[in-house]
Design goal:
Layout lengths: L2 E7 L3 H16 L6 E8 L3 H11 L3 E3 L3 H4 L6 E4 L6 H10 L3 E4 L7 H13 L7 E3 L7 H11 L6 E9 L16 H4 L3 H17 L2 E9 L4 E3 L19 E3 L5 E8 L4 E7 L8 E8 L2 E6 L5 E6 L10 E4 L20 H18 L7 H20 L3 E2 L1
Parallel strand pairs: 1-2, 1-4, 2-3, 4-5, 5-6, 7-12
Antiparallel strand pairs: 7-13, 8-11, 8-17, 9-10, 11-12, 13-14, 14-15, 15-16
């Protein structure tokens, strides 16, 4: 079995998720397409880099990502840094003929997103693989929804309604991490979480062609965070702490038109008390409807128009071993999977794409298309009219 030498850049929350997924992939998907070998982990904080090396089982640690890009032993680079460094690191890794999986959004600006997509295109002929980590489209229930759509079970798509609601930044005492700084993040809620439901919407209904939007910032300053660790609202800072301005959005909502002629709406906020990771997508067609809610990750609700009048309504399908990625859904429907298994599915698809020499469904060009939608959302808010993507 082929081995792939893995390097990870950024040892925080998403770095942990990627490491766990690489480790678990052959445990669930066996025989694995290839065996990951943990070579080098990088973080700009020396103590975090060294601690993560021991914790996650890497052979080496470093504080300069260039050590990884310039290492001929490395096959795969996993980029889990803040958004402003995605382009520089990923493009350098691609030029060094390394496969790259990069966390979303692909970049902090539309120009950097295009540069990454162009760099990926340049190395496609060498079978260099890129993936942007839009993992939610790989949820078994969502893939099942895609199957129903493609086989015509709900007819022609008329309308798509998608939401991504969280509460972790609703408290003004949540610190000013990089996610609230435009220079680093590029955008707030729009780039951080709306991109996920843009991807889900386009995965199920095709590309979005036009948008009209509204963007809002509710909390215009936050306490300054000491250190660079992203706390994601889990720590509150004293109200007397020094504060600095927030220059990104807290909420983005927009109407969309699809190339197919379907219409829809997308709403995302990180300021919704009571909502934890509330991702929903509802698709209405001429012959039925589908509904998915991430907080009920293992369920898909379906309604088919051809059912008899006296029993037509939503029914719940529990995904399990009979459905997509049954290897990670244990043995019985209802035993359920979670975020860790979902990231494992993502890494499986990435590694399998490397071995098979084909681009995955969320390659850099697909991620760039999502960035173009986000760019249109911003332009629409500024212009007050529909903007093309």
């Amino acid at each position: 079995m082929e081995k792939l030498n893995i390097a990870l850049i950024g040892a925080g929350f998403m770095g942990k998720a990627h490491t766990v997924a690489f480790s678990n992939m052959p445990k669930f998907f066996w025989p694995a397409p290839a065996m990951p070998v943990f070579k080098t982990i990088c973080d700009i904080v020396p103590e975090i880099a060294e601690d993560s090396k021991k914790r996650f089982g890497f052979e080496k640690s470093c504080t300069d990502w260039r050590n990884i890009v310039n290492d001929p032993e490395i096959d795969v680079v996993s980029v889990c840094t803040p958004n402003d460094s995605h382009a520089e690191i990923s493009i350098a890794a691609l030029k060094a003929n390394k496969h790259v999986i990069c966390e979303k959004p692909i970049a902090n600006t539309i120009e950097n997103a295009k540069a990454m997509a162009d760099a990926a295109e340049e190395v496609k002929s060498k079978n260099i693989i890129t993936m942007c980590a839009y993992q939610y489209r790989r949820i078994p229930a969502v893939v099942l929804a895609k199957k129903f759509i493609e086989e015509g079970s709900i007819g022609e798509i008329l309308n798509v309604r998608a939401t991504y609601l969280q509460s972790w930044s609703a408290d003004p005492a949540s610190p000013l991490s990089w996610r609230f700084q435009k220079e680093i993040a590029g955008a707030g809620t729009l780039g951080d979480i709306a991109t996920h439901v843009i991807d889900l919407s386009q995965y199920l209904a095709g590309n979005i062609s036009e948008v009209v939007s509204n963007i809002k910032t509710y909390i215009d300053e936050r306490p300054v965070q000491e250190g660079g660790v992203d706390l994601l609202g889990t720590v509150k800072i004293d109200s007397d702490a020094k504060k600095a301005p927030v220059d990104v959005d807290d909420e983005a909502s927009f109407l969309v038109k699809f190339e197919s002629g379907a219409v829809g709406s997308i709403e995302a906020t990180r300021n919704a008390w009571g909502r934890n990771n509330f991702i929903t997508i509802e698709v209405h067609g001429t012959e039925g409807s589908l509904f998915f809610n991430y907080e009920r990750l293992n369920e898909l609700q379906v309604c088919f128009a051809k059912d008899p009048d006296d029993r037509r309504g939503f029914k719940t399908i529990y995904t399990g071993p009979a459905h997509f990625y049954g290897e990670v859904t244990w043995n019985i429907p209802g035993m359920n999977i979670g975020y860790g298994e979902l990231k494992t599915i993502e890494i499986y698809e990435f590694v399998k794409s490397i071995i098979e020499g084909r681009q995955p469904s969320t390659s850099f060009d697909v991620a760039y298309q999502i960035s173009k939608v986000c760019d249109a959302v911003v332009r629409s808010f500024e212009s007050g009219r529909w903007e093309k993507c």
